[in-house]
Description:
The protein is an alpha/beta fold and 665 residues long. Helices cover 39% and strands 22% of the residues. GO terms for molecular function: glycosyltransferase activity.
Amino acid sequence: MDQKKEKNGGQESVVPEKDYKEAYEQEHYKSTYLAGRVAELEDQVDDLQFKLDRIKNNPVWKASTPLRKCMHFAIRQVDRVKNCGSIGGVVTKMKYKANERKAMKHYGTESFPSEEERKRQEETVFPNMVKISILTPLWNTPENFLRDMIGSVQKQTYGNWELCLADGSDDAHAYVGEICRELAGKDERIRYRKLEKNEGIAGNTNQCLTMATGEYIGLFDHDDMLHPCVLFEYVKAINEKNADYVYCDEATFKNGDINQMITMHFKPDYAIDNLRANNYICHFSVFSRKLLDGTELFRTKFDGSQDHDMILRLTDKAEHVVHVPKLLYYWRLHAGSVASGIEAKPYAIESARGAVADHLRKHGFEHFTITSTRAFETIFKITYEIIGDPKISIIIPNKDHVEDLRRCVTSIIEKSTYDNYEIVIVENNSETKEIFSYYEELKNNPSIKIVTFKGAFNYSAVNNFGVGAATGDYVLLLNNDTQVITVNWLEELLMYAQREDVGAVGGKLYYADKTIQHAGVVIGLGAHRTAGHTHYRQKRENLGYMGRLCYAQDVSAVTGACLMVKKKLYEEAGGLDEGFAVSLNDVDFCLKLRQLGYLNVFTPFAELYHYESVSRGLDTDGEKAARYNEESARFREKWKVQLEAGDPYYNPNFTMDKSDFSLRV
Length: 665
């Protein structure tokens, strides 16, 4: 029999020739059938269009147009109220928007230095007064954009800079060169070169670099503006923190007025998983010229996302990537800018995907996929290859609550597509006969075992006991009041947990009403100033702050209600601290992993319901409240330094009183 070889998951398998013929015939049949159906549907569409045109030309239809518009407007307003959940939701949203408008004013020209502060900064002498070469490629730049851009550099309170302008404009925009030569004649720090031909963003910027003489390089778009203090703040970071790569927060603005902001992006500190999924660093990048040794600045094959490629490469080499958490860059919104929508530069999507793929391959990853998310075309989901077939031990503490446990276990068995797992149920002081009857049922499943922890309830001790009975390479702490939603939840967690640089991985959890319970933990957030959940109680379909509910990212901690980690790391970190009997043990564990040098990752692609507190109740009154206060005090003392420093994956411009990324104004 003739045979052909076919690649399958990296392996070669032999496929009979006749199978190919059968497959071809099936596909041919499907193609013919679909072609017929398409023709039928086209005829139906033509018929419906004819009927619609007849209705629209009817005098009665035309006369009722104003009434229909009023009706549709009323329906939209009702829908908006529904989307907010309640009148209270509308009020909350209005307050958020009002606070945001106040913040926009605060971070605009109101944040510019007074004459006294400007004088202080201008007279400051740093130990290392580095020269910063700002590279700006020009191409048919509108005159007002050009003058605003150059003016924002000339108004810097730190004076040791040079502005390198490489001009690829065509003959119809000769005024660009005239203006630059005029300004350069008055300020020797402005350097201008007319290029023989336009080489695109990457090529023109590389031409700017040949003109640069500074120890540090800054990248600045020809249509944007800088805050007057940005270079001062950066040189301060270079001197105080030995920064070799610096970036800041930024805003988009319209109508040529930086006070008319569209969005404000307050960023986390350096976070590699965030950066792989989303070029959140973006503007304003300034870095040591030494980072370019042996490498290019911009690579023309990634034109359109050349900055994402460059940031990935240079932050890889940098020793001290420093985020200045101040809004110091203003990104102009106008037709043709990426800020106005990716539609302006559709080629940027493929360039960004290629840049991320190149970076991943250099880090040893293979057989990954990079796909756009619902947040934005260049905000990516990275699907890593699962290496081997490691065993996962799912640890579920339980006391009574037979229906909760049954729902949890059933969802694991029925929905999980990954099958190399065991379920370790840790029985702790149950009293009802129903739960023991259910245990007897479960004993028929060889993948499930029940172990008994004797002693008073202590969440940490119960889980540590369960992990001790586990035989898997990975352990997954899971609450008994959870229910699996996504079928490949184990793969989504495992693809991150298997990485050598990752500690704990957590999924996205919802309450029964499909609002978010967990999407990552921020330390210091909340009334007790211990830790809190971001995006708390937002709707499942929400994109999150700057799309952060749509991509995997580094966080300080994840919830123990669904937490995967290598078993050897669990043991290396000492397991859960049994001094935290009920609360904050998961956050404490994640911070111990960070102390050991590991990342903790939240992925929104492993989704579960979490009927929180069904099992143990709430910590809002009486003895439980006293215990929570005691554990909170212990946590604040143990992690005092980290809490004072602030969560590196949040931003000090956000209030710590709310979980909705409200600004501290």
